[in-house]
């Protein structure tokens, strides 16, 4: 069993790039397709706490569901927002990665480099053509 996992949406470019960076470090993570297998309430609370972020930063604010539920209204408590994310997993911002070095919402995808426990093994270019890792396995700033 791997000690790295990613809450992944294969339709999201940032999530695909993050998964590719993990694999570029020679790590095969446990991939959780969170839209099909959402975290439980307790798991999501722990993920958010471990990220060290306010609940609203883990709430995806793009899309019809967010707009229809009027989630930009400050009346919603953190617990209510978490309940909405459980009921509508598309509202969970992604990707969230858990490694032995920490838990992080990886937007942009190269934030995953801060918590990987193995170095990059070669060059890496994002889907949009942005070079992130050079031929020596070093992050390009």
Arithmetic mean of pLDDT? 96
The CATH architecture of the domain at 1-34 and 94-141: 3-Layer(aba) Sandwich
Which homologous superfamily in CATH is the superfamily of the domain at 1-34 and 94-141?
Glutaredoxin
Spatial ordering of strands, largest sheet: 2-1-3-4
What does this structure look like?
The protein has 141 residues and is of the alpha+beta class. The protein has a domain at 1-34 and 94-141: Glutaredoxin. Helices cover 30% and strands 15% of the residues. The protein contains five helices and six strands. It is elongated and about 50 Å long. The model has no long low-confidence stretch (mean pLDDT 96).
Key structural traits:
141 residues, alpha+beta, Glutaredoxin, 4-stranded mixed β-sheet, two-stranded antiparallel ribbon, elongated
How would you summarize the topology of this molecule?
Elements (H helix, E strand, L loop, with lengths): L4 E4 L4 H12 L5 E4 L7 H11 L3 H4 L5 H5 L9 H10 L8 E4 L2 E4 L18 E2 L5 E3 L8
Parallel strand pairs: 1-2
Antiparallel strand pairs: 1-3, 3-4, 5-6
Brief sketch in words of this structure:
With 141 residues, the protein is α+β, with helices and mostly antiparallel strands. The protein has five helices and six strands.
């Amino acid at each position: 069993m791997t000690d790295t996992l990613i809450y992944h949406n294969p339709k999201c470019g940032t999530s695909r790039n993050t998964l590719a960076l993990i694999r570029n470090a020679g790590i095969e993570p446990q991939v959780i397709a969170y839209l099909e297998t959402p975290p439980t309430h307790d798991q999501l609370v722990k993920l958010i706490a471990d990220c060290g972020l306010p609940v609203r930063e883990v709430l995806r604010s793009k899309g019809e569901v967010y707009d229809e539920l009027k989630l930009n209204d400050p009346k919603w408590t953190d617990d209510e927002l978490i309940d909405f994310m459980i009921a509508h997993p598309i509202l969970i911002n992604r990707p969230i990665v858990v490694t032995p070095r920490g838990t992080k919402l990886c937007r942009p995808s190269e934030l995953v480099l801060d918590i990987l426990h193995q170095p990059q093994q070669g060059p890496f270019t994002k889907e949009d053509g942005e070079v992130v890792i050079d031929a020596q396995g070093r992050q390009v700033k």
